[in-house]
Amino acid sequence: MLVEVKVPQLSESVSEATLLAWHKKPGEYVQRDENLIDIETDKVVLELPAPEAGLLTKIVKGDGGTVVSNEVIATIDTDAKAPAAGKPAAASVPAPVARAPVSTAKDAAPTPQAQPKAAEPIALPAARKLATENKVDLSVVQGTGRGGRVTREDVVNKLAKPAAAPAAKPPSPAVAATPLPVPVDIGAVLGDRPEQRVPMSRLRQRVAERLVQSQSTAAILTTFNEVNMQPVMELRKKYQEKFEKEHGVRLGFMSFFVKASVQALKKYPVVNASVDGTDIVYHGYYDVGIAVASPRGLVVPIVRNADQLSLADIEKTIADYGKRAQEGKLGIE
How far is Cα 151 from Cα 130, in angstroms, rounded to an integer? Predict the structure, then answer.
């Protein structure tokens, strides 16, 4: 029986997503819940698990494709039998051979065989393509993507470092010959004014879009309010050590800000409302967005039902969001 692999339901504010990297090829056997592909939305990177075990018969859309919710991107034949023990080994042999041209820059024979196996699952296709064209050894590139994956930006940064250090210009002609198919102008030095062009990720594009949109649709207002934080600072200093020992998380200022925001929203319900057409919708819950920096850009995960959380719960939630943002593991919810 053929089972369709569909894009999961995206959030209301996300209309489309991008397929990053398939982890399986047509003709390979997949296990149930095994991650097939990473899907990048404007906010997070999702893993799409296999709905059933079987043979991946067809991939409808490849790496870099744009998809929408519930779109079919592959099919799995559940009637196919799992391959024999020898087949996976045979399937893994071509990978090092395909990677050999990149690794032959090293003279040591055993190294090229060990490196492709480590680099294969962690380098995204765009990063691998850029590394191949510029003869960069992926094993020496520090990955900043989810799960330590090497992104195109990591390869760009690796290329930029050697290009700036040596005064001699042998590298420039080699790199200058390749930028045409690559969306990064690394070797194109115009006098003493070099330039580097890097495509924005979906998240950064959405951040830029929202910033411009807010300027044209929202009233720009700057207000300065002085607040005496001394009592809070003294309270925090007095109980910080005990708080951390008891709850396993540091007592910061953000939990106080969240609690103060909740109290303000309760006092002025019109602020905790949104406009829907000709109606004003007053919300009976208190969700507070917390800006968190991540390698992919600025994200704003939501601390839901903040009025029902203690200071410790809020601090734990913020710390958890910060860690997951750095690891690229924030979910749509």
Answer: 10
